Fold NRAMP family divalent metal transporter.
Amino acid sequence: MTQLKALIKVLGPGLLFASMAIGTSHLVLSTKAGAQYGWIMVIPIVLANLLKYPFFEFGVRYTTVTERSLVEGYLNLGKTYLWIYAFVTLISTFTILAALYVVTAGLFMNLFQITSMGAGGIALCLFIFISLLLIIGKYKFLENSLKAVITILFVALLVTTVLVIQKGPAPSAESYQRPEIFNEVGILFLIGLIGWMPTAVEASGWVSMWNMENLKTMKDKPSLKLALQEFNVGYILTAILAVFFLIIGWMTLYGTGTELSGSAVVFADQLVNLFTVHIGDWAYLFIAVAAFATMFSTCMTAHDAVSRVSVDVLAKLYPNAGAFKNKNAFAITVIIMAIINWLVIKVFSANMASLVSLATFVSFVLAPLLGWMNLKTVMGNDIPGIHKPKIGLQILTWCGMVFLSLFALYYCWMIWF
C-alpha cells in the first residue's frame, strides 16, 4: 500500500506521455489497422511498442539519475549531436502542432456539428485556449488536468470496446476480400503504423523535460525504480489504448467493404457515424468524447513538450543568450509556437500533407540515430554503473535500433524507387 501511494504521488510524466502518444497514431492508424486488416495487426502494434520502449525509458532514466535533461546529455556527447536533435525539433515545430490542431478542429466541427466557423477559426480558438492553460496553469495544471482527461478517455474507450465486443463484428460484405498486407499499399501502411506507434523517437526528449518539471514539484526525489514504474504505467496504458482502438475498428468496419477516407478528420467522423449505426445512436456520446479527448489532450501535451524542449535546446546551443534562461521563456515560446503553427495552417493549408510528409521522413530516417544517441547517453559517464541499463534492456535496445534502421532504409527505398 505504501508503494502504491508513492507511485500515485509521482504520477505525471508517464501519463503525459500516454496523453501525447494517443493522437492520430491511435485514433486513426490503430483503428484503420483493425478496420482494414483485422486482428492480425495487433502483432505490429505490440512489436512497435516493445522495440521502441528503451528509447523513451532512457529519457526518464537519464533525468531521474542526473537531474538534467536528455538535451543536456546530447550536448555532453558533443554539440553535433545536439544540432541533430535541434534539426528534428525544428521540423516538428513547423508541422506537428499545425497538423494536430487541424485534425482536432475538424473533428470538433464534425462531432458537434459546429458549422458557423471554419477549421482555421476553431484551430485559432484552440491555440488561444490551450496556450492560456499552459501559461497560467504551468506544468502542475497540465499534469493534474490530464490525469482527469486520461481517466475519462480510458473509461470512454473501455465502455466503447466492451460495447463493440458485446455487439459482435459487423456483417461482412459477400464480395469482401481482405487486402494484402505485404504488397506496396500494405507495406506503406505498416510503415506509417509502426513509425508513429506509440510515437516518434524524438519524443524521448519530451519525456525527459516533463520528468525535469515533475522533479521540481517534489520535495523528495523519487528513486529510479519508482520513476520507471510511473513511466511504465503510462507506457503500458498507451499500448492498451492502441489495442482498444484496433478492436473498435476491427469489430465495426472490418469486412464491411466500407471505403475508408484518407483524411484523418473525415475518417474519425466516419468511424463515429458507423459506430453509432452498429451499436445505436445512444452510444454516440461515448465514441465522440473518446475521439475528441484523444486529440485535445494530444494537442495540449505536444504544445507543451515542443515549447519546453525548444527552450532547452536553444539555451544549450546559445548559453550566453539570457533570453532563453528567462523565467518567462516558456510562456513566450508557447505563444510563438501558437502563432507560427496557426500561420502554417492559414498559409500552407493546401500543402499540409506535404509538410507532414516532410516531418514523417525526417523523423523516420533519423529515428535509429536518435535511438543510438539515447543509448550512448545513458551508458556514458554521467550515470553510475548501478543505474545503467541491464544487459537485457541493452539487447532490446539494439534490436530496436536494427528494427528502426531496416524500417528507415525500406521507407527511403519506397519513396525514391
Notes: The chain has one domain: 13-416. Residues 13-416 form a domain with the Amino acid/polyamine transporter I fold (CATH 1.20.1740.10).
